[in-house]
Design brief:
single chain; mainly alpha; 3-stranded antiparallel sheet
Length: 353
């Protein structure tokens, strides 16, 4: 590594070829099933901020030469633009330090294994953006409020809209000449306490007619489902996680004020109880009846999602949640989940023509 960096640092004429190789390695990662957010996530986990900036610059440099890949990919590229450039306070490294960082990044990119390819949605319904915008606004208010009752009501309304949105999507799919097929997206499930976070994401996915498969080594879960449901899962999971972190900080402050030192075990138990309790409530909400004419449509979509998941992941295993041994953490986590409940969904029926 030092020898290679020394050669590169000594010869500025190699800069163009080094950049070309970088965009080539990025394109190779796409062929292996990786997406922009996945690459940035693994670089951040394995290396440091310098490498993240380099990876982001390479991804954006390669984008104009790439083929169109759909709205989810475009959104990931747009999010990268916010973090590409340094704010000007980071000193420019010397050529040797820069070359070393580039080679470390390229070594990581070349070692990325193949992932399950994700398909972009075939079509986008016009009502999606407006409905998901309303859901996003409700969840943002739930995260911001300091009143548990208000957060509960806002989150319940958001889940109600998600359920309504899912049924509308099912009806559109049934009437369309060419039916949609399930797609998939990856959602980061990063340390610490990643097991509990994966359980929470699985509960949210199941309640919204999706299936989640956790990849622990690469810190993400792949969620399989129809596009509208996938967007709903991303929104609700993120909101519930934010609410959990806020509630955990409040619970820890109360424990310290009472003279009890809280530990990693407290936080692990808190999040495990939170995920378990939220899962119970979401499952109850998912059992709300629907009208008979919708049952075949929803059932066919459930089968399609399961088939798609099994095609992508023919072999899966289960894992046991570890480190849940703090009674106070479990109790506080369950209480926080009660405050963040989404409520039962009303009986669903098609909207009139």
């Amino acid at each position: 590594m030092d020898t290679g960096a020394s050669f590169l640092a000594a010869d500025p004429a190699t800069d163009a070829e080094l950049a070309r190789r970088g965009t080539e390695f990025v394109a190779q990662a796409w062929r292996r099933g990786w997406q922009p957010a996945d690459v940035v996530r693994i670089v951040r986990r394995e290396l440091d901020d310098t490498h993240v900036r380099l990876a982001t610059a390479l991804i954006r440099a390669q984008a104009p030469d790439d083929r169109p890949r759909g709205p989810r990919w475009t959104d990931q590229l747009a999010q990268l633009s916010e973090t590409q450039e340094s704010d000007g306070t980071t000193p420019r490294p010397d050529r040797f330090t820069h070359a070393t960082a580039v080679l470390e990044l390229y070594r990581l990119l070349l070692r990325l294994p193949a992932l399950e390819p994700l398909e972009e949605p075939r079509r986008e319904h016009k009502g999606d953006a407006r409905m998901l915008g309303r859901i996003r606004a409700l969840l943002a208010k739930a995260e911001a409020t300091g009143y548990p009752e208000e957060a509960e009501a806002l989150t319940a309304k958001a889940q109600e809209l998600m359920a309504r949105h899912s049924v509308d999507e099912a009806l559109l799919d049934a009437r369309a000449p060419a039916k949609d097929t399930p797609g998939a997206c990856r959602i980061g499930v990063e340390p610490p306490y990643e097991q509990a976070k994966a359980v929470l994401l699985d509960a949210v996915a199941t309640a919204n007619h999706c299936r989640a498969v956790w990849n622990e080594p690469f810190a993400f879960s792949t969620v399989v489902g129809f596009e509208g449901d996938l967007a709903a899962v991303e929104l609700l999971y993120t909101s519930l996680l934010v609410q959990a972190q806020s509630a955990m900080a409040t619970a820890e402050a109360a424990q310290r004020a009472a003279g009890r030192k809280r530990t990693k075990t407290f936080r692990q138990s808190f999040l495990a109880a939170y995920a378990h309790r939220v899962g119970d409530r979401l499952r109850t909400a998912a059992e709300a009846p629907v009208t008979d004419d919708l049952l075949p449509v929803l059932a066919s979509r459930e089968v399609a999602v399961t088939d798609r998941m099994e095609q992508m992941f023919p072999q899966t295993t289960t894992t046991r949640l570890r480190g849940v041994s703090d009674e106070a953490g479990w109790t506080e986590g369950a209480r926080a989940a009660d405050r963040a409940q989404v409520g039962n969904r009303p009986r669903l029926s098609p909207r009139p023509e």
